[in-house]
Amino acid sequence: VSVEYLDYDVLDDQGWTLDDGSLFGKAADAGLDATDYGTFSVTPERTLLESAEATGHEWPYSCRGGACANCAVAVCRGELSQPVNHILPADAIDRGIRLSCVGKPITDDLAVVYNVKHLPSIADLRL
Ligand code: FES
User: Fold this and answer.
1) Which atom of ligand 1 lies nearest, measured to the CA of 100?
2) Which residues line ligand 1 (CB under 6 A)?
């Protein structure tokens, strides 16, 4: 399983939006460094956050137990399980927001925007 990732800070800087269908194409063409954009392999037994860390990425987190939303990602392609969620409201789940500290990939292909803790609707929830 592989995941294509993009830092939410880049969207903020570039004026791109999460609902842009060509978001990852734009990111691929933008000459971003590996902190901001790229791909890595995900082990299905690991959470997305654990796989990110195992491949040298430092993604935000705090509780690692589904309770703070610091690790939130927006799933733009594919799906991530969500076995534990003590923080995200139903409308965030409907918009594809998931917690990377507990979520494991359940599709072979995945694209996520990480660092969405800065999205205003998520920033308001964080503990
Ligand atoms: Fe707190 Fe994931 S790190 S919900």
Assistant:
1) 2
2) 61-64, 66-71, 99, 101
Write the ipTM. Answer: 0.99
Q: For the segment 82-100, what is each residue's pLDDT rounded down to a tens digit?
A: 999 999 999 999 999 999 9
**Class (C level, CATH) for 2-123:** alpha beta
Rounded to whole angstroms, how far apart are CA atoms 73 and 61?
11
- Residue 44: pLDDT over 70: yes
- Which atom of ligand 1 lies closest to the CA of 67? 4
Would you say residue 124 has pLDDT above 70?
yes
Alpha helices in 1-77 (DSSP H): 8-14, 23-29, 48-54
With the most atoms of ligand 1 within 8 angstroms of its CB, the residue from 99, 112, 127 to mutate is 99
Q: What is the pLDDT of residue 127?
A: 61
